[in-house]
Amino acid sequence: MYRILVVDDDEEITTLLSQYMERFGFEVHVASDGASMHSQLKAHAIDLVVMDVMLPGVDGLTLARLLRQQSQMPIIMLTARAESYDCVVGLELGADDYMGKPFEPRELVARIHSVMRRQATAQADTSQAANVRFDAWTLQRLERQVVDPQGTVVPLSYAEYRLLCTLLEAPRRVFSREQLLEQARGRSMDSLDRSVDLLISRLRHKLGEDGPSLIKTVRGAGYMLDARQIQACVA
């Protein structure tokens, strides 16, 4: 079963989560700050990190960014401030899911299973991934970046990459905001409706002057990718 690291300085929460998740067969390890988190990661082969945003010393968002630079290990963020901006920052930094406090432990268990299923699917897809050319742009899936018509590499954040992949899978299909986040995160996130607008805006900016024409807003419905040609390619 999965080995989970819970990073939270609230001992009551870590004890509750440990006892509850162990009932489902999880092996649970606990850390209260960044230093103890790194110690646990070195000592155990952790499969997924559940991390609070508000931590003593280095905050959870910074730790998530540092962890994502070193590993693709799934991360679920916990926060008492489930506002769109905070959630967008977490997703941009590479968090796989976001839960606002208070929450039901059984929902966290369900989220862990969902994230791990997506992780397994993503690893299978990456192992046979081809680059994808859409009009004059190329998405390099292994590197999680796009190459513009002049050959310039444009890095994508984790969230931007996931959104672009979702749009590329069904060109000219209109996705609602809820559908985009559900496709990218594996669940509905109605309360974060406006966060999609921010992510779409950033992705369009990365695509330069082609951004608005490639990713179109369908008023009252959502967004769609309007590329004239999409094909898999080797380079």
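Second entry:
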Amino acid sequence: MLTPSSDKQVFPSLEFIGWYTVAPKPTARHIAYHEQFTGYCSTPLLLVLQPSLSLPGGSDINAQSLPFKAYEPTVEIKERTSRSVFIEVPYNVETGEAERIAVDWTAKGGGSGTSLESHLQTQRSAVKMLHERILLLVKYVADVVAGTTKKDHDVLRSLAALVASLPASENKAFREEFDTEYEDVQLTAFLSSLTKSTNILNDLVDKHLVLTANREDRGGPRRRMGRQGTMPEWGDRLHG
């Protein structure tokens, strides 16, 4: 039940502009509901959430990819009779960086998995978002240089200040630290691969010893001899 007076007290800075529902598309029933909101707003908007809508894939970072549509009421006159109908209206989504990263993380199932996996997914989303913003800035500067976009001196000054605030990446100290960290990462990956290979080889030796011992117990022929013509003992296994 709507209580505009209490809502106004809780949210004094907000105005009622419309309502929302979950449906594939607006129907006559929604028009009947919509008339109840005209007492609070002369032309309320209708936001239809469409969770079953299949979103088109693409690389356009400016494309709308949210499963909902906005409608506004209008009066259609047909055959000398008028009726209320909904027409779709365009909209823009304005969100902060933290909101977009959080929504993207949640949509991809960020709540499941280990804490490390969740942390890495968050970092990946942040880096992806930063990369998209850098591409937009580069495209804007390229369009300004080419003369296809109007020059905005405030934006250009902000870009110049941003570039000037970045730390210099081409100096000896930075390069030495970067090379050291890169070598440490590569060495860690190599040791991890070596340890995994050693464990696999150790398991293979264990299986071979068990198989050979079973054949020896059954009086079968020896297919492989140990050191100095004897069967290998358990102490001769390879340990990593």
